[in-house]
Amino acid sequence: MTFLRYFLKVVTERPVNRMNDTIETREIPNGIENVPGLKHHNLNVCGGPMSVYEAGEKGRPIVVLLHGAMYDESRFIWDQLFPFLSRDYHVFALDSPRHGKSRPWEGYLDRARLMDILHNTFIQLGLENFSLVGLSMGGSLSIEYASLHPDKVKSMVLFEPGGLTEKVDSQFIVWLYIKIPGMLRMLSRKYIKKDHAAIRKLLESIYVGGSKATDPDRLTSILEDEIKGRYKYGENDMDDWQLSCIGPFRLKWNLLDRIPLIKCPTLWLRGADSVLVKQFEIDRAVKLAVDSGTKAELKVIQNAGHILPLERPEQTNLAVKAFLDKLDHQ
Q: pTM of the entire structure?
């Protein structure tokens, strides 16, 4: 899965700020919590808390955003896309269980349980027909949900979803690592000791291709909140969704069998400099979708990596909106 590669990298390497060029990203203010008319819902779903951000005019087409794994949350990865889409769409951004303000949760949060939680969250929000936008784990959850509920999902935008391969790099090392007692909470114990400046440096290290954070202090503060949440509730660095798939030599499951079941038009997005989802993996996934009769297109954005919505927000925002607009105006 995509974040497994990132997990192994962050554990075994010192952060490196890759500079492929000196392209500047124009600063775009915003942030989810600064969106006019923002509503924040705290729902009780399937025995646990679900945090949902809502903005945009009711009656407009609905877009649901699902973030990635590990230290991601809605306020982080959708810092620029959520405000942008809320001008023309009715937008919801969910904090997955054990992320953001959706904590604490008890028990094992595997694929089946997450699908149940997502479905019941949508029911509580009264969402019947909507577009899904997901990054990494959020993209994978979108694929699985759309395959199970094709009548509800009208279109999807997938940023480098996990689950597109049979094994990951250094598969045995990753499996061995998670089996060592105490190692799954090593990062939170390490990061909780760092000050704001150190976390900001960590944030800046994951940007590639000369991209820069639009508001590094805001994003650093959000990242600090996520670190504190994982540490406070004794959560693992990796999600159960990730851990459930890791075998010693191969992944125990992937989503390649789910892709042919997708019935809605789908835009797949990849950062050209990403080391987490390989080009051949996403090419194969798109071909699977097309061969199954689904409208699918792939857009690769240069000078960007895995956190594409933050690295190249202007290009990303326009690509997502153009795709959604085209479908809603047909």
A: 0.91
